[in-house]
Amino acid sequence: MTFLQIIKPLWIGVALAAGMYELTVQDKLILFAEDQLGTTETKANRSSKIDEWNNALGIPLGSSYCASFVSFALDSANAQIPAVRSGVAQKYITNRSITSGRVSTGRTIPAGSLVIWKRGDTWMGHVGIVVEDWKGGSGKTIEANTSPSNSGSQSNGDGVYRKNRKLSPTSYFRITHFTEVK
Description:
With 182 residues, the chain is an alpha+beta fold. The protein is built from five helices and eight strands; from the N terminus they run ααααβαβββββββ.
């Protein structure tokens, strides 16, 4: 754990108590995601928290849960944009989304945005939360239903983890879009 990871929650707590800072929707989204770090499955795609996320969307228990995690996080942060709440990652691509190509050529994505993957030309994918401003070809995220390292399934893992991700436009499983949260 870095010094910033230790001091940031303390500083935010003091600033909030003193009325010096008001949490943004993006702050709330990231804080919710950070609070879920370490959530792991007790059986395939199941735990009490994972079941709560899937139940909130009416998704059958045992289903993939990256998107239901994001939906629950958006609701917890009282986000209005994107308006979609879905168990399908690709549904988080909206007319306000930014393509990964624009990011790789210099567009910065603010912390608290969503990052969306696509699997080939299918409707399947993955979605997570950007936790630090994303500049250029790589960024930091928190994702559910992924693995703790770069080995293992990146879109059907066993829990909620902090990840370092890279844009790789020619990969079969690739980041295609970022969606702003407000």
